[in-house]
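Sample entry (197 residues):
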Amino acid sequence: MSERQSQRQRSTTETTISIDLHVDGDGRSEVSTGLPFFDHMLAQLARHGGWSLTVSAQGDLDVDSHHTVEDTGILLGQCFAEALGDKRGVRRFASAAVPLDEALVNVSLDLSGRPFLHYEVDPPGEKILGDPPFDPQLMEEFWRAFVVAAGITLHLVLVRGRNTHHILESAFKSVARSLRDAVRLEGADVPSTKGTL
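Predicted structure, serialized as C-alpha cells:
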C-alpha cells in the first residue's frame, strides 16, 4: 500500500497556509494558525483521527478570524482528498459520538465524493476566551470548507451540552474517530456500486 499523504500550500491576499497530512500517522501534530483554540481543535483532529499533521497558517486576524479558519478547512480538505486517492478499499461509512463531560455531538459521514454538510450544533454563543477570542460560529464555516474540498458527506448533531468549548471539542473528536474508521482499509475495491467515489 502506498503511503496516504499530501502536502499542499495555499496563498491568497487574506491567508498563506501550508499543510502536511499523513492519514496513517501517529496522532502527532504541529499546528500554528494564530488562533490558540483552533490550534487545539486541529490537534484533536490529528490525535483522534490517527493523523500526522502539520499546519502553518498566517491570516488577516486583524480583520477577522473567518478567513484563516475557512481557508484552513479548504486546504485540509484538499489534502485529505488527495491522500485518499481513489479510496480503493476504504470502509467509506462511519459514525461516532464522543462525549466531553456534559457535551455530546453525534457524527455520521460518508466518503461519498458528494459534498454535503448538515450542521445542527448551536452552542450557547459566547466567544471562547483566548488571545484572540474565538467565535464558535466559525466552526460551521470550517466544516463546510473541509467537506466541500474533501468531497464528503458529514452530519453533526448536538445531542446535549452547555459549555461551548466542550461542545466544539466533542464535535472534533467525533469527526476524528469517524474519519479514522471510514478510511480504514478492509478490501481492495472501491466501495460503491458505481465503481467510483
